[in-house]
Amino acid sequence: MPMTVLNESALISALQSGDHAAYATLYEKFWRSLYIHAYKRVKDEAAAKDIIQNVFINIWQRRETIRIHTEIEHYLNGAVRFQVFNYFRSEKIKDKVLESTIQRFEEMTTINNLDGYFELEKIIAGEVALLPDKMKEAYLLKAAQHSTAEIAQKLNLKEQTVSNHLSEALRRIRVKLGSKYPEWVILAFFVIELNWFIIS
Predict the structure, then answer these.
(1) Vertex 73 angle, CA 180 and 16, to 5°
(2) Which DSSP category does 163 fall into?
(3) Could you tell me where the DSSP H helices lie in the chain?
(4) What is the model's pTM?
(5) Who is most buried in 21, 27, 68, 136, counting CB within 10 A?
(6) pLDDT tens, residue by residue, 151-196
(7) Is residue 90 located within the same domain as residue 162?
(8) Can you give the residue range of the structural domain that contains 26?
(9) Tell me: the pLDDT tens digits for 55-75?
């Protein structure tokens, strides 16, 4: 049963006051779903556990200044994605342009203030909503960590058709973002690619 807004607000307040019981409640309620969320992206049990540990350690260390303007679960999922991108940067990313993009992303987003990240998600979601139905379905399934083969099976399409839908979706989103939010376009595509990372 989901927490009510009142319960969530009380839990956050208790956490900010240094209440260990509130911290334990937060951990017990969400660690398993967050671990699954992390593992789907990094495909490594030890790395996924480290990511979740880092999320909760950072929350406790920054409890007094933490800002949560959304549901706790949504915030925690954003914090996991933030740690996942840190993991991929340390493990895989060498490209200077991408590194520069990441640095800019870090300037606007921290573990105790994910507002910049959530603003990007809103912008992307708004553009996705405008896509044609099949293209939108393919995009949303991809964002939900389904492989191209799985999407093809679910939508009763050929894999090449799915790939075409995904490529065209990205092209359309890039064009729309480039015209409406030129200062956000590179960061937005970094967020999209982060959510799609290593999913074939």
Answers:
(1) 105
(2) H
(3) 5-16, 20-42, 45-61, 72-91, 96-108, 115-128, 133-143, 148-155, 159-180, 185-196
(4) 0.53
(5) 68
(6) 999 999 999 999 999 888 888 887 777 666 665 655 566 566 655 5
(7) no
(8) 5-113
(9) 999 899 888 888 887 889 888
